[in-house]
């Protein structure tokens, strides 16, 4: 899991290294460090660190070390990678089909965002729908692909994947 944390450190030599060492000592991998030395509040400086850990237990051990060494965790967030999806649907696509696609995608695990833009004639039924979004797991891309293929086949419209 990727973690992004804002730390508040005493402005004395060795504090930054002391705050980073527990990450590598607990099988973490530091991705980035932003040291805001000019933004001092109460003799403390702000540091933003992004790192990866394999287990929640590793993260817990890092937190325990920080608690015992006067490192204040101001904010912590998990950072999830996401993967883009993009489909163009062309044909006689009813509003009921758009609704079914939306509800189906909303119920899928790993779908982080979804945007559907529809163009076309209201009278003829001929429409195009651009579906874009993001999933949080690479494996979800295959599930989404199967979902759209099945709907396109059953609905009799054309499916074009990945225009980017």
Explain what the structure shows:
The chain has helices spanning 15-25, 56-68, 95-106, 138-155, and strands at 2-10, 29-41, 44-52, 72-79, 83-92, 111-120, 126-135, 158-161. The chain has 164 residues and is of the alpha+beta class. The protein has two domains: 2-79, ACT domain (Alpha-Beta Plaits), CATH 3.30.70; 83-161, ACT domain (Alpha-Beta Plaits, 2-Layer Sandwich), CATH 3.30.70. The strands form two sheets. It has a four-stranded antiparallel β-sheet with strand order 2-3-1-4, covered by helices on one side. Strands 6-7-5-8 form a four-stranded antiparallel β-sheet, covered by helices on one side. Helix 1 runs antiparallel to helix 2 (56-68) and helix 3 (95-106) runs antiparallel to helix 4 (138-155). The longest helix is centred in the C-terminal third of the chain and has 18 residues, at 138-155. The model has no long low-confidence stretch (mean pLDDT 89).
């Amino acid at each position: 899991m990727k973690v992004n944390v804002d730390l508040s450190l005493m402005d004395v030599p060795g504090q930054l290294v002391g705050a980073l060492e527990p990450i590598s000592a607990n099988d973490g991998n530091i991705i980035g460090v932003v040291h805001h030395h000019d933004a001092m509040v109460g003799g403390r400086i702000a540091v933003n660190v992004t790192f990866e850990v394999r287990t929640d237990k590793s993260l817990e051990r890092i937190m325990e070390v920080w608690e015992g060494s006067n490192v204040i965790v101001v904010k912590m967030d998990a950072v999830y990678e996401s993967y883009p999806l993009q489909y163009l649907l062309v044909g006689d696509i009813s509003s009921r089909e758009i609704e079914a696609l939306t509800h189906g995608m909303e119920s899928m695990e790993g779908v982080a965002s979804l945007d559907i833009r529809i163009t076309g004639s209201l009278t003829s039924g001929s429409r195009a729908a651009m579906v874009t979004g993001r999933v949080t797991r690479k494996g979800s891309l295959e599930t989404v692909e199967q979902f759209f293929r099945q709907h396109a086949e059953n609905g009799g419209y054309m499916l074009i994947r990945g225009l980017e």
